[in-house]
Every structure is written in C-alpha cells, then in structure tokens.
Amino acid sequence: MGQVGEKEPMAAGSYWEATAGPIKEDRQLVGDARFDVAIIGAGYTGLSAALKLASSGVSVCLLDARRAGWGASGRNGGFCCFGGTKRSYPDLVRHYGLEETKRFVAYQCEAMELVGERLQSWQVDAARHSRGEVYLAHRPKDFEGFKAEAEYLNSSFGLGARVLNKEEAAKRGLAGPEFHGAMHVPQGFALHPLRYVQALADKVRSLGARVFAHSEVTGMKREGADWRLVTRLGSVRAPRVLLAGNAYSREGAPAWLSGRLLPVMSSIMVTRPLTDDELSEQGWTSGLMASDTRTLLHYFRLMPDRRFLFGTRGGVFESAEALKAMYARGRADFERMFPAWTLVDTEYAWHGHVALSRSRAAFTGPVPGMEGVFASLAYHGSGVAMASLCGEKAGGMILGEVKPQDLPAVIGTVPRRFPLAGLRQLYLLGAYGWYGLKDR
Ligand SMILES: Cc1cc2nc3c(=O)[nH]c(=O)nc-3n(C[C@H](O)[C@H](O)[C@H](O)COP(=O)(O)OP(=O)(O)OC[C@H]3O[C@@H](n4cnc5c(N)ncnc54)[C@H](O)[C@@H]3O)c2cc1C
Asked: Residues in domain FAD dependent oxidoreductase (predicted)?
C-alpha cells in the first residue's frame, strides 16, 4: 500500500484494512498438488469463479501472489456501480448495435444485484449506503449535456436517470464550487470493499476450495491434458485454469498475457469524521456516491461514519517521490473541490492498480490457443460489480454451463496486445497531459 509524504503525517495506509477486522492469511503452496481447476488471483473475479465451481462440487484452488483480496478488490473505492468499459453507450451502439448494448446494460444491473444479494444472504456488515450514483457536471457545458443524456439513458435502457440543476443539487446536499448540476441514476450502492471480499473468501473456503497465499504463479506449461502452474515452493496441475490477476497479473505468466493490459494507478484518501457544522458549511450532506464529469475523474462519498472518501487518478511511476507528488495532487484537488474542508486532516491514504485493455472493455472468455484456459479481466476501474458477475460467469464457462455467446458481445472481444507494449507507461503520460487539458 502507498506510503504518504511528509505533508500528511496523520495519514496511515488503507482505511479498509484498519476497519475490516482480522485479515485471514492462508497457507503458502508447498509441494505439488492436483485440482480440477486452478485460478490465478484471489480477488472478486477469482473468488467468484471459485464460488461457482466449488458450489458445483469441483475441486478448485486459488493461487495468490500475496493473499485473498490483497489486490484491487481489497483497496477500491467501494462503488458497486455501472462499469467494465470506458466506451460511451452511443459508441457501443454504433459498434455492437442497440440490442447488444441493451444486453450489456442489463448485465451490469445484474452484476450490481448479485453483489447486493451476496451481502444480504451472507449477512455481511459492509457499511452499505447510497441509493444509486450521482454524476456532477464540473463545467456548465457538461450540465447542458445531462438533459439529453438522461433522456437517452431512459428511452434506450430504461434506467430512470434524473437531472438536477445546480440549485436542486445543492438543496439535496450536493454543493461545491465546481458542481454545476447533477444526474442521478438509481442503480448501485456503496460498500466496504475489503469486508465484501473477505466474506467472499470465507464462503469459498467453507465450500472446500483451497486458497494459497504467497504463491505467485511464475510460469505455466502444458503437461499432457493438464497445465502445470509453477510457484516458488511448489506447483499445481489442473486441466482448467482461470487467469484472474487483472492489473496485478505477472507479465509472461502465461506468455499470452504479455502486453495485453495497461495497469493504471488510482489513489484514495479518507478524512477524519466530519462534524455537522463542517458538512453544512461545505453544503455536502448527501450520502450518495458521486463522481465528476472529468475524463480523469474524481470519485467521492460521505461514508456512514461521516468520513469523506476522495479518489482520483494516480501517477505513472511508483518511486517514493512520485507517490508523494501523487498524494499531494489528490489532496490539492480535494481542497479545491471542497474548500470548507481545507483544514480537515487526511487520516488514511493508499493506492492501487486498475486494468485497461485496447478495446476499452472487459473480457471474459476462453484464451485463444490455450486449451482449457480462460481469462476474466480489464474492468476499467469499475470491477466491484463486474468482476463479481464476470468471475461467476467464467466459473460457469469452465463448467460448460455458460457459452461465450451467452455473455454480452461487449465483453467478448479478446484483448489485443498494445503496440510497442514496453512503452505503455509513456502512453499514460501522454493521455494524462491530453485529457488534463480537455477536462479544463
Ligand atoms: C484505488 C482503486 C479504486 C477503485 N475503485 C473502484 C470502485 O469504487 N468501484 C469499482 O467498481 N471498481 C473500483 N476499482 C476497480 C476494482 O477494484 C477492480 O476492477 C476489481 O477489484 C478487480 O478484481 P479482480 O479480482 O479481477 O482483481 P484483483 O482484486 O486486483 O485481484 C487480482 C489478484 O491476483 C493476484 N495475482 C496476480 N498475478 C498473479 C500471479 N501470477 N500469481 C498469483 N497471484 C497473482 C494478485 O496478488 C491479486 O490479489 C478500483 C480499483 C482501485 C485500484
């Protein structure tokens, strides 16, 4: 997790880790073992696949380089929301047609419902709040676009989007100098992401799946009908394998993964609890999860314990200096957008990686040219819901119950390699510069 710089002496790593309760450490894989299915990565994707498989009586193991939920699943903003692509709906309609795009929208709604059902049926204390999500126009011209966008979302997909002008938004506790109006969609909610992934891991363990921590898969090779997955102190043989490492995947394990994902950093800070006076002084009293209309967006929410969570894009490099600059930039954005809270301390700050693909959409399906191998990844920064459902569907594919064509075509495009993949981080530098200018 990220270390914070001298400017934030109070900040102490992840708020989720500080409040999740005991974090279970599974044993490391030592020696050789055989399972029906081996899953690389124990986040929402891998665990959801394991849940499906173990529920059907299949012997399954998860191998994680660190531990269950250590990756993005245990460190995200907790927005259980629409996601899985950076493409706009009109763009998807042009490419896939209206019916396929409708299927994709319905799939995202199903994904959010799945998470809600899991939390409820397992009675997870996940600090759930927020009825839907609100998008805030950071420029007057973005607000102008909201009316047509809401009409489009409602007439094409029946989402029930509503537009609030600046005054109406302020009345509902959504005020700030950079907010020029809002669009609300009723789908989605916010949760404690680490408690959710821990509950998922507990469920998977209780069904007999094995979770191995500190067991990074460094290579994969074919042996007869099986794949052998090699870790530092052992190996697993299995005829079926799921690649679920997402942004934390190791390049080259397997070789197919090389150059196909673009990991991008995102950083989060959490303040101390805010008082009633501080909330009304800022004009932000709403418990809705929110994001602004920038391409390099900010996401934020007032949590049930009245701490404010504020997320923003990370940097490109991970040196101590670069991380310090990244946290300082996030804090400066927070103070500009919520000026009444300039003196409110950041108590927690951390960062993690999301994964992008060239098609700018998630992928769930069989890996071409690798018999028995499946992948589910690239949720484009919104995987709480999508990784949960895509993981479950990947488990269904491994069982033969789900066919690739049963999923929306939007998530069926195999990620292509980035050209000059070694320079991917430089693309980001260029993109940040360009979008930073466009967002003004
Ligand atoms: C800061 C941040 C904020 C975010 N906010 C949101 C949000 O608010 N809402 C939302 O919907 N999404 C959000 N996301 C994205 C979301 O968290 C991810 O899309 C989702 O968690 C992906 O789940 P996953 O299981 O695919 O991957 P991960 O949870 O990243 O799990 C991958 C696991 O694979 C392991 N692994 C990788 N390679 C290997 C290997 N070779 N051998 C063994 N183990 C390996 C890693 O150790 C890791 O534990 C955010 C992400 C970040 C980083």
From this structure: 36-392
